[in-house]
Amino acid sequence: MSSKRRKNFIKRILLGLVQHMAMALAALVVVMVFEGSVIRVKNLQEDEKQFRLNPFDSARYFEETDIYTEMFYNAVSDIATLVVFKSQFETDGVYDGDRLVDVTGFVNRREQVSDCPITAYYRLEDLVKWGKAGAEMYQKSLTKKEFVNYFNDNLMDISHFYLDPETEALRYSGTAFSGPQEQARQMLPADVVVTDENEAYWDLYMDTQLQRLEEVYGNYQQYNEDQLVEMAFSYTASHMDKPIALEEKNGEDMVVIQLLVPRYNTEDGKQLQQAAGDWINYSKLEINVVETLESLTNNYEIYESRNELYTSENTNLRYLYRVKTEDGFQDYSNLDLDFTVYRQEDIDTYFQNIGSYLIYSVEDIICESNVNITDEDMMAIIETHDYVYPPGSFFWVGIPDEYSVVGDQFWVGRQAFDRVVLHVRDYVAMVSICLLIWLLLWCFLTFTAGRQEDRRGQIVIRINGFDKIYTEFVLLLGAGLVYLGRYCLDFFLINTTDQLSRTEDYLLVLSGPLKWAAYSIGAAFGFLASMFFCIIWYSFVRRIKYGNLWTDSLLHWLFHKVYRGISMILYHKSTAVRTLIPYNLYLMANLFGIAMAFFEREKTSSMAAMIFFVLVFDAMIGVVLFRKNAEMGEIVEAIKRIRQGEVEYQLESERMHGENQEIAEAVNNIGEGIRNAVATSVKDERLKSDLITNVSHDIKTPLTSIINYVDLLKREHIEQEPAKGYIEILDTKTQRLKQLTDDLVEASKISSGNIVLRKERINLTELLSQSVGEFMEKFEEKNLTLVYEQKSRDAFILADSRRMWRVVENLFNNIYKYALPGTRVYLEIWKKAGVVEMSIKNISSQQLNISPEELTERFIRGDESRTTEGSGLGLSITKNLVELQGGSFEILLDGDLFKTMIRFGEFQGGHS
Amino acid sequence: MANILVCDDDKEIVEAIEIYLSQEGYQIFKAYDGKQALEILEKEEIHLLIMDIMMPRLDGIRATLKIRKSSSIPIIILSARSEDTDKILGLNIGADDYITKPFNPLELVARVKSNLRRYTSLGSLNPEGRSIYQSGGLVINDGTKEVTVDGESVRLTPIEYNILLFLMKNQGKVFSINEIYEGIWNEDAIGADNTVAVHIHHIREKIEINPKEPRYLKVVWGVGYKIDKQ
After folding, report:
1. First and final C-alpha spacing in chain B
2. Which among A79, A338, B47, B95 is least buried, having the fewest CB atoms inside 10 angstroms?
């Protein structure tokens, strides 16, 4: 990437970042506005109540907003409930634990009618303590007789029995039968007041009672005790409000019943059972006590913990609830004023001047208020507590506008209003600016997407790897991201703003410490949304500009494949006709056969014949196909063999059928062609080698004479110059010519592979040691120091030992000829992972401006001038010899450092 | 002195050889093809024959085969054919030595002398006695610490002498450098440098006519050194 392109790339990245940051900022502001418009206040019934301001409220003052009305209404409702609690727990505005609570009355305070004829009075404090401890039950097991006589021995008394007026059968009555009293009462004049002291009544009563007893007695005598107990038990059991269970124990029916543990006694020191008197009343009273405990305790807990919520120190709200009682009024207020001395009108005036106010008369159902609260709203509040607020009760509520009590719900609301609604324009402006920046950058980046300057400064469109992904996948990715984004939005924002009343349902509630988390999530959401959108968008823009929107799409690929398939069929028309038509005919024949078999299914024989024909036909086709494929397999095998060098391989083409026969013949021809070519090439190479050999022989004979006569000349001891010099030159040049012819023959033989290798197991380390011994003197002559490092004492390889010697000799000779005198020569041998490696390093005396590859070519020497001794064939011979023996030869040049490396596979076998 | 027949179709080569050999005091007969050589051999008493292979009328190989039917004089083949196969063929059909062209005149003279010595003094040696070891023309007498090659004594350093004696005592067996070191110094070969190989190189230069193609102390490349039984 050129620096310009890199700069451009970085610029785009930075602009993109700015763009995403703008979106993040916009999202942050939106989240802040929505989060800031949530008001959380303490509430009587719940721990926390949330209200949400409409940030775009047109109201100029907090008091004009809907939320203010809502909060006001909530407070009025709260106080109505609070007053109910106060009426239950307080005497003269102070908690009074000694208050007596009528259990039956409390339970039925709303209905004011009870089916429980008796009640019990407990101290309020006892009930609260009892309720906090919980209503415990214990189990009692009684015989039927014990059960019936549990409260009183005389419950089996005859006075509890009567005769059914219709059937005249003996019946049990839970209480002493009241018939005689009523009869006596009816016999008296209506104006007589019936008391126990009234003798006339008493006499009458006794008379009727006696009369009745006489009637009953006869019947009563006929029953034994068990029968009577059974009668009393079944009556009691059926009239009780509690479940009882029967269990058999030691052959006797036992009654098992759950009873309330009487943790506290009634106000007059009685236990609950004592207060009841019999099972029927006890069961009703017990239910009432348990219900009272639960309800009262629940109320008490709210009262205890939140009583302070609406004291004048804790709220800006002022109230006076005047509850009508039997003896006048009871006032509940958070103002330190004795309103009893004021007239109703004065109180009205006082509250009307407060700011926001509400005056409500329960009797008239008229709500007077400058807050938007209707009569119906107030009725709804009273409805649940109307036993506390009888007609004649009044509500006065007022909230001053100055909110002098800091921290209460109205103050909090006002703060939020000031913060959000009054500044909503600023926020909108900020968001607009951010979006504008985003949009501008978006336009710019869209325009410049993919545009780059090439080397000549022309604008070209370039795309990156992402743009080459199939368009459909990117679309799918985009859709997935949109879905994910919507899910996140639902999760983090919509849930927490639109459905605040159900915040407990959601994981993330925007409160306190989570506020900043919400901000960062909002910002991150904006950033990521912008980023993902832009990545995909710019990619599409680039695709459109580059023109690969369609070409790199899955649909295009599919289209292309289908197109190719059709074109192929059209191109190979004959093949298509040859294969597809028989194939279809085959299918149709099968179908036809099966169909025929199906139609002929009535006649078993013709159906069997049809199936048989189809099977035979299919089998024939199968055989033909198998034969065809088998032949094809043979052909493939043959081609494989020929390719691997087995050029003599021939297919038996006469055996083959149809097309395969043609192919087989062609393959045979190709094999033959290759065979001929190889033979020719081998022959040529051999001829060449033979030619060189013969020529060199022919050269050698005259050369022998020259050498000999030069030698003879030397023996003449000619001292006169320049003749002596000439003889010297003749001597060296003839020696070189001799060397050259030898090397030439060898090189040509090796390169044509025209030599016989006698491979055996040799120790390369030993061979190197021997070679070093041979060359020690020559090296010393040139003042070369040989450093021979044997990292492996035994390095066995499979090679022709004399050829290996030739290799090493060549390399050493090279060093002798070309190494810089006075330097060191490093010879190393080591084994590594089954490979024997040796390297020779020396410093060249001449500059080597030639590549290692060229050095191993024939007639190349390190010095191109060809003035020094050597034929230039040494390295070529060496390389060829090493490779012929299965090794590898490598030359590395680094400045004047000349390094040769030879590698052979380690020979693992034994002596050969 | 001995009579030597030189046979080559290249007259100049024959002349040159004549010059070298007559300087050594030999009587030279010249022939320019196989037929001529055979004729001279019949007429004259010849002690050694130097012959080329590629010659008109009768080539060296056929001539050698014919000569060997009746004579056992040393035959040295002098040929431009330097292939191994040529050398093996020549030696197998009865030649005693094989020199490739172009040759070193000194080597030729040395080989002629060596062959003549062995031809004339063959069987005159008495290899009896335990302290005398022999392989072909190489004799080492451990009693007198004397080494002779074809009757000529050779001067060796004590270490060279010990190495040669060790190899002569174990003729036909190949010894690696380490084995030689251990056999002579009776020490572990750890750290043995290239001295043994260098010494052997020196020995070969002293006892061989052409150290590159040794007759006695042979290099088995990659395995070791040996002296063959002859």
Report:
1. 27
2. A338
* Residue indicated by tokens 């509040």: A381
The residues, any chain, with a CB within 8 Å of residue A418's CB and separated by 6 or more, are A62
- Distance (Å, whole) CA A842 – CA A850: 16
Residues in chain A within 8 Å Cβ distance of B80: 697-698, 700-701, 704
Q: Does A175 touch chain B (CB under 8 A)?
A: no
| B169: its two tokens | 């005592």
3-state helix, strand, coil in chain B (%, to 5): 40, 20, 40
CATH class as words, domain A756-905 = alpha beta
Tell me if A122 sits within 8 A of A101, measured CB to CB. yes
What is the pLDDT tens value at each position of chain B, 230 positions in all?
788 999 998 888 898 899 889 988 899 999 998 888 888 988 888 889 999 988 888 888 888 998 888 888 889 999 888 888 888 888 888 898 899 888 888 888 888 988 888 777 654 445 455 678 888 788 888 888 888 887 788 888 888 888 888 888 888 888 888 888 888 877 766 655 678 888 888 898 888 888 888 888 888 888 888 888 77
Residue of A689, A696, A701, A800 best to disrupt the B interface, most CBs of B under 10 A: A701
A905 SS3 class: strand
* CB-based contact, A773 to chain B, within 8 Å: yes
- Tell me, letter by letter, the H, E, C secondary structure of B5-42: EEECCCHHHHHHHHHHHHHCCCEEEEECCHHHHHHHHH
Neighboring chain B residues of A707 at a CB cutoff of 8 Å: 102-103
User: Nearest-CA distance from A788 to chain B in Å?
Assistant: 9
CATH architecture, range B132-227: Orthogonal Bundle (1.10)
Closest by CA position to A287, among listed A99, A110, A152, A114: A114
CA nearest neighbour of A771 among A791, A788, A755, A783: A788
Mutate: best of B32, B194, B208, partner A, most A CBs <10 A? B194
Length of chain B: 230
CATH of B3-121, one of 1.10.3720.10, 3.10.450.50, 3.30.590.20, 3.40.50.2300: 3.40.50.2300
Cβ–Cβ gap A801/B80 under 8 Å: no
Chain A residue numbers touching B200 (CB-CB < 8 A):
770, 773
- Say if residue A722 is preceded by a cis peptide, omega within 30 of 0: yes
Q: Can you tell me which residue has the tokens 């006065």?
A: A396
Residue ranges of domains in chain A? 3-36+423-552, 38-96+311-405, 572-643, 647-755, 756-905
Name B75's bridge partners. B49
Q: Does domain A647-755 have CATH number 1.10.10?
A: no
Compute CA B31 distance to the chain's CA centroid, rounded to the nearest angstrom.
Answer: 24
What is the domain partition of chain B in residue ranges? 3-121, 132-227
Instruction: Please report which helix (H) or strand (E) contains residue A188, including its range.
Output: none
Interface test with chain A among B219, B221, B226, by most A beta carbons within 10 Å: B221
Cβ pair B197:A767 closer than 8 A: no
